[in-house]
Amino acid sequence: MKKILILLVFLCISTTYAQEYFPSNTGVKTPNNKLFAFTNAKIYVTPTNIIKKGTLLIKDGKVLNIGKSINIPKEAEVINLAGKTIYPSFIDVYATFGITLPKRESASGKRPQYDANRKGYYWNDHIRPDANAFNNFKFDSKKAKELVNLGFGVVNTRLDDGIMQGNGVLVALNTASSDAYRILNKQSANYLSFSKSKKTRQSYPTSRMGAMALLRQTYLDADWYAKGNIKNTDLALQALNDKKELPQIFRAGSYLDDLRADKVGDEFGIQYTIVGGGNEYQRISDIKNTNATFIIPINFRKAYDVSNAFLAEKIALSDMRKWNQEPTNPAVLSKNNIPFALTTYKLKKSKEFTANLQKAIKFGLSKTTALSALTSVPSKILRNDKIGNLNKGSYANFLITSGDIFDKNTTLYENWIQGDKTVVNDINIKDLSGEYILAVNAETYTMSISGKGTKQKTSIKKGDKKVSSKFSLKDNWITITLRDGDKFTRLSGIVESKNLKGTATNNNGDETDWTATFKSKKEDKKEDKKKDKNTEVVAISYPNIGYGNYTKSRQENILIKNTTVWTSEDGKILTNTDVLIKNGKISKLGKSISSGNAKVIDGTGKYLTAGIIDEHSHIATSAVNEAGHNSTAEVTIEDVVNPDDINIYRNLAGGVTSIQILHGSANPIGGRSAIIKLKWGENADGMIYKNTPKFIKFALGENVKQANWGDLQTVRFPQTRMGVEQVYIDYFQRAKEYDAKKKSGQPYRKDIELETLAEIINKERFISCHSYVQSEINMLMKVAEQFNFNINTFTHILEGYKVADKMKKHGAGGSTFADWWAYKYEVNDAIPYNAAIMHNQGITVAINSDDAEMSRRLNQEAAKLIKYGGLSEQDAWATVTINPAKLLHLNYRTGSIKVGKDADVVLWNGNPLSIYSKAEKTIIDGTLYFDIKKDKEKRKTIKTERAKLINMMLLEKLKGAKTQAPVKKVKKLFHCDTE
After folding, report:
1. What is the pLDDT of residue 2?
2. What is the pTM of this model?
3. What is the DSSP string of 608-652?
4. Model confidence over 692-711: pLDDT tens digits?
5. Which of 379, 419, 466, 485 is buried most deeply by CB count within 10 Å?
6. Residue 396: half-sphere exposure toward Cβ, Cα within 13 Å
7. CATH assignment of 90-101+113-381, given 3.30.870.10, 1.10.287.130, 1.10.10.10, 3.20.20.140?
8. Secondary structure of residue 163 in the 3-state scheme
């Protein structure tokens, strides 16, 4: 009832305070109709429009007039602010002020939930655009005071819950008012995130790629609903359509997720305002290309306590860099002309905001940009020109300070919000900070006063010895209690210009005069200089971790002379051969090739091969399984490629140039794959193959029927192997009917999942299927034949030797392990001769990894086929080069050394199948991405940089700064069954 009343009140008032004709049960408020004139102040109307010795007139909570020479009405109360500065009050555009956030219900001991709780809403509970933060809002006076004391006058608050979170509320932090006046907009913006709602345990989505797919499908369904094609009422889709014109604010939280959010927005013509994670500086050109406005937290991490050398070794270089580089993020954004607002979001304590903001300024952020980030940019994000400035007609939200608002020695006196004054520090109390010579009782002391307002304090020394003292300042009356040895002296006095003087009473009751002569603020400046020595920023690499590149790798023309070439073309070996790489392609093979302007590499005594291709990998991704449904064909690994994974570099050191990143095996129908080249230092988009055949992961066996998930996982269909077959038949039948309707020209609801499955039926997308048991392998081939397509690849396929003849007839390939077996029940019949038997049946066989460690040793895995099955060296080598290229339908451009193909090659210092051989150079598209000599140089550089950062952190601790304990970064390695 209270909220309904407030809403009625809100609707009844106009942009200026109307006459009240309704009862108020939400607090007492007498509109402040008094006219105030603030004169002789330096006024920041906007960050770039500054008036010196200006006058500000306010009335009825608004700016009545502002300027240098304006008429002041007689009835105005004139406040002389000579020597003071006025700024617009700050805006926090991303707050949870006054909103009680739901707590996540524990799922421990409970079965998973697959259906939605809400009836009459969208099928997924994490889609909540109908939520209205206004209905959960309760003004928090204590928190408001904290924010007001920091300089904030307005907050845009929201209910941070769900993937689509509903609308926020714009609130003035006016503690003297009621909600009817301080709520400026009850539908200020629409909020989104990648995080699930805490109000439901609905399983889907379980991954970032699932969240992205859900967003896409929701937008498609909202459009379908808006056209009147959905007959039932869906309150969530209705709300989404109703709020699509609001500012759209998306909480991403890292530079990778910034780009992912922007990708979804671009697909639907939506320009999100993106809440970043503070690491945008790592890929600033990509961030700039989003054309987004950002909201940036400044929760800079503390230095690590590296005093224990053994514990310090645990800290990853990337984490050390973050401590050093994070404070530069706002400045880097500014230098690249990327608009952004600053927020208190992610700060454990609001009071950290000012110190962190000053730190950002010390690290290069201009004060003008800082002010814009707290005033004009938030105003623009919210499309509200009445806040964040002091133009005529704007809200009378302003700060009165002693000087530069971002200077650590500046005092914030008052924060006026909607024309109501909040005193932060008494404006009449003088700032006494500085160094003084104190003379009393025929003794001389050095006295330092620091702090602001009534919180100023003293530090007194006699020579080098510190003397105990107690200082207070009230109504500009000074009292100091001084203890020198056993003697006490009480000092009372006043401020006279910059100096202090008064009467001193010793412990015998005798009185005498005392003086404190102002010396300077010289010591403060020295301290600043000391701190500046610790603001050196280490260089950013791409990716910004150890072994990253400081400059982007460039394509070169390269001539490799006099080497042994394993072509992977019908097992052909060329000895003493030259290979010319030009414009990213293999240009010539032969002897005595002219180098021209090409870089020459001596290959004498070495082996040149095509780059290794891993058909089944899970490195270089931020997610591997979307486990929320039994079919997730709508998700794609391309959404979650992670170019910062160190395993990319390790794979390059093992001669790997291309991989297929497969979805895991959590469900019968998994997600679409990503096929990438391991271009270390590129962004995710720069790694993904363009215009390649499309693939999807299917799975059979224990994982998909959840036999190994635990006793509670018995509610999702299927729970048996025959149920898995029924899932395939059901989904393919639905996809067939969907495709027929689409091709008929009739209106249809676009379904991303069925679109993908229809591509399989139309032979436009290929299946790579996780498989073990022969009966299931046979089953899936029969299902595929029922719908007139073939299974492209059976991966794992450890019982392939039992059905090799049937696979050959069907046209399926096999991508298997060399000698993994018996690691779970359904692998008990695996044998190391499996690959050789399939090969001898004429099947295209590849050796894959499914493991980050194995993937960088695939040359050794291939060598095992010589031991287990007697394959020739060239046939064994084909299983990691041309064969996986064939399985991926990429053999026309990679997988072998042939004129016209991509220059994806590796130079080995010995026979590539030997465990003693190393990849000396790994080249992709004519660009050198791994060089064993440069690798050694990188190791030295890493050691030097670690030492530098450790010394800087030691200095930070010695200066008294708070530190955090060393933390070892444990990288999670993905496999098929990783959730």
Report:
1. 43
2. 0.92
3. EEEPEEEEEE--SBS-----SSSB-TT-BGGGGB-TT-HHHHHHH
4. 899 999 999 999 998 888 88
5. 419
6. 27
7. 3.20.20.140
8. coil
